[in-house]
């Protein structure tokens, strides 16, 4: 029997889909009717949306008609997409989905009862109905997300930040997990533009963005907040842990080798940090981080200040 925590790599190539009954009508005796009917219904229902959350929510609900589940988690690292449905269970089975070399993410099914071989076989069959709807949804998401990226620094833009912050606050409250926010500003950035030109300033922005991303976890999110300011969202991160991250970012930015017209440029950053309070709004969380950043600037720059 497979381990309930095992990750199964599922590549739905053409032959695989053919064996699972896509492209031809399988004989009714090959699988239980309930499985065949559910797979057929899913194949129709999942095509009605291009929203990953809606598709997976529908899949989670319908699959439970055949295989009891307590939770479903999904992650697609390339598009920074994480979705969770239901509550955690003690046992899990994972599937890494791909189609002809294209990675479509990882699904984790959870429940308190162990998954049998039959359960896992049914899940694998039903996953075939999810393949093309999720592929289309991910392509659509990639197209729409291009409008949510800052092209210079390859970080999220202000629109993306507004959307993500509201979502992360909701998830923080639902799962009773801490959420922290860092606001980072490049010290004396105007001097770089004035002395070396805007092209040099752009190079500095890209270098700082790279330094930030190199210090963060995959689940952390970076946004260009405006001008020379960046905002970093730290999910499931306490005030104390966020302070450690902020200090690490400050040191990494200072250690970066910046050059303009062949000349070394010494740069530092200042940071303000706030951690979500019970019942706090996104606007208040941002305002407290901004106030802490102002204090860091006023007290000499190249430092991190924690919001009260």
Q: What would you say about this model in short?
A:
With 308 residues, the protein is of the alpha+beta class.
Descriptive account of the structure:
- The chain is α+β, with helices and mostly antiparallel strands and 308 residues long.
- The protein has 2 domains: 7-145, Beta-Lactamase (2-Layer Sandwich); 151-306, Alpha-Beta Plaits (2-Layer Sandwich), CATH 3.30.70.
- Helix content is 44%, strand content 25%.
- It has helices at residues 14-19, 33-45, 52-63, 117-145, 158-174, 189-196, 198-214, 239-255, 282-298; strands spanning 7-11, 71-76, 81-86, 91-99, 102-111, 149-150, 155-156, 179-186, 221-226, 229-235, 258-260, 263-265, 269-275, 304-306.
- The strands form 4 sheets. It has a 5-stranded mixed sheet with strand order 1-4-5-2-3. It has a 5-stranded mixed sheet with strand order 9-10-8-13-14, with helices on both faces. Strands 6-7 form a two-stranded antiparallel sheet.
- A hairpin with a 2-residue loop joins strand 11 and strand 12 (263-265).
- Helix 2 (33-45) packs parallel to helix 4 (117-145), helix 3 (52-63) packs antiparallel against helix 4 (117-145) and helix 6 (189-196) runs antiparallel to helix 7 (198-214).
- The model is unreliable at 1-6 and 20-33 (pLDDT under 50).
Task: Describe the secondary structure blueprint for this structure.
Elements (H helix, E strand, L loop, with lengths): L6 E5 L2 H6 L13 H13 L6 H12 L7 E6 L4 E6 L4 E9 L2 E10 L5 H29 L3 E2 L4 E2 L1 H17 L4 E8 L2 H8 L1 H17 L6 E6 L2 E7 L3 H17 L2 E3 L2 E3 L3 E7 L6 H17 L5 E3 L2
Parallel strand pairs: 1-4, 13-14
Antiparallel strand pairs: 2-3, 2-5, 4-5, 6-7, 8-10, 8-13, 9-10, 11-12
Helix pairs in contact: 2-4, 3-4, 6-7
